[in-house]
Design a protein that fits this description.
Length: 341
């Protein structure tokens, strides 16, 4: 079958199978218009562009919550990303949404995360002019920094989902412009939450930071003891409470699930994310980032040698781009070269 015929077949299949409110690949737009390429839809092409970047490969060596010293099986940013992608695809398929869009956005959602987990994000936010957020940096990687400064020219739909995947302290389900413009983007937002609420506890238990006896009974009753039962409980509740409304889909959890997820999240902050053992692991990472940032801001030779300095508007932004792109081990080795071992 000719390539253009294969692509047209896929596009027609989307029209026949996907819900009316699902994003269609045929309607995807880019900042820089492109002609259809081969047999892949626009969203499939975005996924492949993301997966083949160096920024994506570096996620394998960036901490999720616990450092590699905690054990061989703790999640990294890469394994977290893969889990988010699979959860997002599962939800999208069940709701007859566009799996390819959900997958592409999930694969790109953490491209901008720096080294040393959330501590790295907090430190960069405190140091950099204009602050730092991993979702904004993820979009900057996709638009500007990837491919040695050429950018990926992703679709607007994937860009929007990447930029708005993180809910912070706010509600999960919010409409555009604060929330994602597509239902698939909202699915990625949910999948990210499902993934970290499920797997961060498992990692903490495997690392000896938590045991089953530490978990409140009400959380065990709501979610079970394993990562799999937690994911199953949350996704099942979402699918059971999502309804068609006014020609679109209203994603929703039950009131009980919203309450229980809040309790689980609060427990994880108390018992894991702010645990002295975790803070101790991350202390060296925080010092490392501060030392590298200080050196770049003060050493003209170091600053002039930054590989993508030409793409930054100021020195602080160049330092931010450089540090956010580092893996944990590269940052530690770079700091040793500065005499900050």
């Amino acid at each position: 079958m000719p390539r253009h015929s294969a692509l047209e077949s896929i596009l027609r299949r989307e029209e026949a199978i996907l819900a009316p409110y699902a994003a269609k690949s045929r309607d995807a737009t880019r900042l820089k218009p492109e002609a259809p390429q081969g047999f892949r839809t626009a969203f499939q092409l975005d996924r492949d562009r993301i997966v083949h970047t160096r920024a994506f490969r570096r996620l394998a060596h960036k901490t999720q919550v616990l450092t590699p010293s905690s054990g061989d099986h703790c999640r990294t940013r890469l394994t977290h990303t893969l889990e988010v992608s699979q959860i997002a695809r599962t939800i999208a398929r069940a709701l007859r949404l566009n799996e390819d869009l959900a997958e592409a956005a999930a694969m790109g959602h953490d491209l901008g995360h720096g080294p040393f987990g959330h501590v790295g994000e907090t430190v960069l936010n405190s140091l950099c002019k204009g602050g730092f957020s991993h979702q904004d940096q993820s979009l900057r990687v996709a638009d500007t920094l990837a491919d040695n400064g050429a950018g990926l020219n992703l679709t607007q739909e994937v860009r929007d989902a990447i930029a708005k995947h993180s809910k912070g302290q706010g509600p999960i389900f919010v409409g555009a412009p604060r929330g994602p413009a597509t239902l698939e983007g909202m699915v990625v937002r949910v999948a990210d939450i499902v993934a970290y609420l499920s797997h961060d506890m498992e990692d903490a238990m495997e690392a000896g930071i938590l045991c089953v006896g530490d978990i409140p009974l009400e959380i065990l009753e709501a979610f079970g003891e394993s990562s799999e039962t937690r994911k199953e409980a949350i996704v099942t509740d979402l699918l059971e409470n999502t309804r068609e409304r006014d020609g679109t889909l209203a994603l929703a959890f039950s009131k009980g699930m919203e309450r229980d997820m809040g309790k689980l999240r609060d427990f994880m902050y108390r018992a894991v994310y702010r645990n002295p053992k975790v803070d101790g692991q991350m202390e060296k990472g925080a010092k490392t980032i501060k030392a590298i940032y200080k050196a770049i801001m003060e050493d003209d030779g170091l600053y002039q040698g930054l590989p993508l300095r030409r793409l930054a508007d100021n020195r602080s932004e160049a330092a931010r781009d450089f540090i956010a792109g580092m893996t944990d081990r590269y940052a530690l080795n770079f700091a040793k070269g500065l005499g900050e071992a």
